[in-house]
């Protein structure tokens, strides 16, 4: 594996998202997933916008590149955040995080068709490992606390993440500074999530905000850092490689969950085994032979 700047940015995103996952899991114990997602997106946008303004970030002139970044932000982190938060609330973070780690499978297929990227045979083998890890995690009995059908929520998040990554890639080339692109995408995600929540959950947002503000403050800051690293990685590297490496975050999430949430989430051997398979697949996707 070649540790160029793109790989380092992707690793930074993976670590940031793992911290965000655990903070979200704590906060979702006391609020609705859409309310939590709105609080997350508000914090993330404010954090990114403040840094962009303080740094005097240059935004390029209007053009189609804004359309692609806005579309990418609507899918990831916009729709992705909603689906993943619901997934965490339904099946727990230890299962939801590795399952949404199947994003490289969808990102690879989408990048092949939209961006004409051509992965090698061993990199495609890594994608198969990732899919196998997801199947392992979701196998076995669901138990009383979650249903097998609920895995569709993080799977939907993975599809949204894969599509969003390709759309981001199509527009980021025109942004000299990744932070500018990250700020635009984060603003779009905020509009998508908050718009829906304000229509249907306005009173609950105000009611819950005072009770769960601090875990989602931490979650939003970590997610904002992840968005910056995410945009930087996609700007510097190929989509199927970067998305696969970023999805190392579920391994960290599972390790945290094993330490702090093993009994609460009923974690069996399938969860860490599937997470390891996912990580091995991500490494194979990033090999350069």
Percent helix among the residues? over 70%
The total number of structural domains is 1
Q: Report low-confidence residues grouped into runs of 5 or more.
A: none
Beta-strand level of the residues, as a percent range? under 5%
Radius of gyration: 18 Å
* Secondary structural class: mainly alpha
Task: Count the beta strands.
Answer: 0
Mean pLDDT: 82
Please provide the ordered H/E string of secondary-structure elements.
HHHHHHHHHHHHH
N-C termini distance: 8 Å
What is the global morphology?
globular
Q: How would a crystallographer describe the biggest sheet?
A: none
Helices, by number, come to 13
Structural summary, described in words:
With 289 residues, the protein is an all-alpha fold. It has one domain (5-285). Helix content is 80%, strand content 0%. The chain is built from 13 helices and no strands. Helix 3 (64-91) runs antiparallel to helix 4 and helix 4 (93-100) crosses helix 7. The protein is globular and about 50 Å long. The chain starts with a helix and ends with a helix.
């Amino acid at each position: 594996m070649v540790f160029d700047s793109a790989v380092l940015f992707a690793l930074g995103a993976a670590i940031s998202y793992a911290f965000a996952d655990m903070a979200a899991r704590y906060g979702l114990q006391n609020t609705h997933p859409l309310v939590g997602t709105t609080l997350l997106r508000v914090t993330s946008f404010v954090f990114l916008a403040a840094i962009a303004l303080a740094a005097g970030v240059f935004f390029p002139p209007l053009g189609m590149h804004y359309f692609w970044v806005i579309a990418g932000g609507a899918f990831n982190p916009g729709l992705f955040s909603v689906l993943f938060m619901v997934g965490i609330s339904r099946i727990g973070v230890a299962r939801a995080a590795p399952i949404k780690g199947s994003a490289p499978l969808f990102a690879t297929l989408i990048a092949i068709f939209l961006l004409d990227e051509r992965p090698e045979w061993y990199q495609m083998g890594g994608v198969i490992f990732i899919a196998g890890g997801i199947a392992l995690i979701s196998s076995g009995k669901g138990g009383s606390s979650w249903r097998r059908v609920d895995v569709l929520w993080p799977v939907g998040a993975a599809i949204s993440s894969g599509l969003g990554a390709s759309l981001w890639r199509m527009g980021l080339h025109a942004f000299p500074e990744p932070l500018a692109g990250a700020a635009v995408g984060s603003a779009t995600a905020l509009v998508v999530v908050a718009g829906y929540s304000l229509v249907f959950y306005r009173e609950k947002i105000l009611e819950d905000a005072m009770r769960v503000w601090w875990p989602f403050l931490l979650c939003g800051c970590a997610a904002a850092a992840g968005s910056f690293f995410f945009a930087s990685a996609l700007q510097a590297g190929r989509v199927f490689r970067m998305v696969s490496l970023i999805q190392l975050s579920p391994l960290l999430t599972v390790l945290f969950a094993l330490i702090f949430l093993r009994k609460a989430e009923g974690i069996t051997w399938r969860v860490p085994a599937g997470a390891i398979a996912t990580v091995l697949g991500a490494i194979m996707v990033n090999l350069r032979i």
